[in-house]
Design a protein that fits this description.
- By secondary structure, the chain is of the alpha/beta class.
- Helix 4 crosses helix 14 (about 285-310).
- It starts with 9 loop residues before the first helix and ends with a strand.
- The chain folds into 2 domains: about 40-105 and about 285-395 and about 435-505, no CATH class; about 115-270, no CATH class.
- The protein has helices at about 10-20, 45-55, 65-70, 75-90, 95-100, 120-125, 130-145, 160-170, 180-185, 190-200, 205-215, 220-230, 240-260, 285-310, 370-395, 410-415, 430, 450-455, 460-465; strands at about 340, 355-360, 440-445, 470-475, 480-485, 490-495, 500-505.
- It is elongated and about 80 Å long.
């Protein structure tokens, strides 16, 4: 996330929108990237808090769900206590345990997104979305059709705006109800800045207005951004960009406002009763967000400690350990949550109830860590992204009313039966409602000091590990002891459910 100023840079804002909008692809092709990629420079829990407050994303389970995990023994009391000690200190454990288990918190306030454009309804009594979206989505659905609809868009092999110009020039029916917007499309090549000057008026509000607008239908915007980034693979050689989508939607907004308010209405900024707060201002942690972070860590380590207990044994004992003879962990539906990099013989104690991505790696053949570096650069971003697709598909279902149900046109484009979930990962609710949201655990067999050295040289994978988007555990190749990467150090992990502060620098 970068600092922002009051000057409007169309190119920079379009780039930012593409980062923040969830990536979606038509048909059954899934894009694997961190759905919160724009927040990845932050620590994982800080990112969840910012994404929730700014954009209204559901990034964690509800307090009630976490507490039900504790009551059903999915979260182990010893693990919860350990997390409390690590985060709050031993002297504050009792106080925070009461907050975690018992305290009632107020409902979350409405997110920042949408507050600026809400003033059309408050100050002008015009619901722009209700009047613009039906027209916009019908046109988009037809233009983006993957050759499955009965009615075909009449113009192909052109960009979206050029196609709309040809349709408007040769059709008896117009997409517009008033002359100004149609004239702007046909007789000029308006910039986003020009159109926002008409609609909003104050340049310092332009960026926030566009975020409000595009996140009011992020399924469509994310799809268009993905198509643009992927080379616009539309049937018949047509193409579309996020800029074209925004220009056309702004024209439709001008058309609605002219139709409802007449020719001489003032831009939105002129009648703002209260200027909305900065969408991108930092979101300070509060007690509720801290409690949710404690719960998430307790859920994950309740699951992981069973696995690590099975893997924690002396290397000399490996040949005598039969596969599947380690302790059985609670069966948990958490796909893409476990990755192992090391000699396969060293991990025979993995409980049979868990699926792991196994990467055969021999530390003795990699004295400088170069092979491990290449492995981590490949494995962490790909598996981490796939893992978070599942993670946020599940948390997006925490509130059954979260996010609008997508239109029939969108369902046809995606070939999916149920795309509820505000992070729009493209995974069906039927597939994700029983998942456990767990970050990826990557276990590496190497020397802890070598792994620290490798982390320092990473590029694409570094923020995943350093900012806690994945968990990294090192199985010491000589002693067999487990060490957890935390805050730039390797902290010794004991299978008796205790973490001992013995950092390796």
């Amino acid at each position: 996330m970068t600092a922002r100023n009051n000057s409007f840079d169309e190119h920079a804002v379009l780039h930012a929108l593409k980062q923040f909008l969830p990536a979606l692809s038509p048909g059954r092709t899934f894009t694997y990237r961190n759905p919160l990629e724009a927040f990845q420079s932050l620590n994982f829990h800080d990112a969840l808090r910012h994404a929730s407050e700014m954009l209204g994303y559901h990034t964690s389970l509800s307090m009630e769900e976490y507490r039900s995990y504790y009551n059903s023994k999915k979260v182990k009391p010893g693990v919860l206590e350990r997390v409390l000690v690590e985060k709050k200190g031993a002297s504050n454990t009792f106080e925070w345990q009461d907050k975690v288990l018992m305290k009632k918190f107020t409902a979350d306030a409405a997110p920042r997104i949408g507050r600026l454009r809400a003033n059309w309804q408050k100050q002008y009594n015009v619901d722009l979305d209700a009047r613009v979206h039906p027209r916009l989505f019908r046109i988009l659905a037809s233009f983006l059709d993957q050759d499955v609809a009965d009615w075909k868009f009449p113009v192909r092999r052109q960009s979206f705006l050029d196609s709309m110009r040809e349709v408007e020039s040769n059709s008896f029916v117009s997409a517009f109800n008033t002359p100004r917007a149609r004239k702007l499309l046909l007789q000029t090549n308006p910039s986003i800045n020009d159109l926002l000057a008409i609609i909003v008026g104050d340049e310092s509000l332009f960026e926030q207005y566009l975020f409000d607008q595009q996140f009011a239908h992020r399924g469509w915007s994310g799809l268009v951004a993905t198509l643009e980034n992927g080379g616009n693979s539309l049937p018949g050689g047509s193409s579309i960009t996020l800029r074209e989508l925004i220009v056309f939607e702004l024209l439709l907004e001008i058309d609605v406002l002219d139709d409802r308010l007449g020719k001489y209405w003032k831009p939105l900024a002129y009648r703002l009763a209260v200027r909305p707060g900065d969408l991108f201002a930092p979101v300070p942690a509060d007690e509720k967000s801290e409690v949710l972070a404690i719960w998430q860590d307790a859920v994950e380590w309740s699951y992981f400690e069973e696995i690590l207990a099975g893997l924690s044994c002396n290397p000399q004992d490996f040949p005598n350990q039969a596969a599947g003879q380690g302790p059985e962990a609670t069966v948990t539906n958490a796909p893409d949550s476990l990755c192992i990099i090391g000699r396969l013989s060293a991990f025979r104690n993995l409980p049979t109830s868990h699926r792991a991505f196994l990467n055969n790696y021999d530390f003795s053949l990699d004295p400088d860590g170069e092979v491990l570096e290449k492995l981590l650069e490949t494995v962490i971003p790909s598996l981490g992204a796939a893992n978070l697709e599942h993670f946020f598909s599940r948390t997006g279902l925490a509130d059954p009313d979260a996010g609008e149900v997508l239109t029939e046109q969108m369902i046809g484009l995606f070939g999916m039966a149920d795309l509820r979930g505000d992070l729009r990962t493209g995974l069906s609710g039927e597939l994700t409602q029983s998942l456990e949201p767990l970050r990826l655990l990557c276990v590496v067999e190497q020397l802890p000091e070598m792994v620290l050295k490798v982390i320092g040289k990473l590029k694409a994978s570094k923020s995943w590990i350093v900012n806690g988007w994945v968990h990294l555990v090192v199985a010491d190749a000589l002693s067999g002891e487990m060490r957890v990467y935390k805050n730039g150090k390797m902290v010794a992990y004991k299978s008796n459910r205790r973490t001992v502060e013995e950092p390796v620098h």
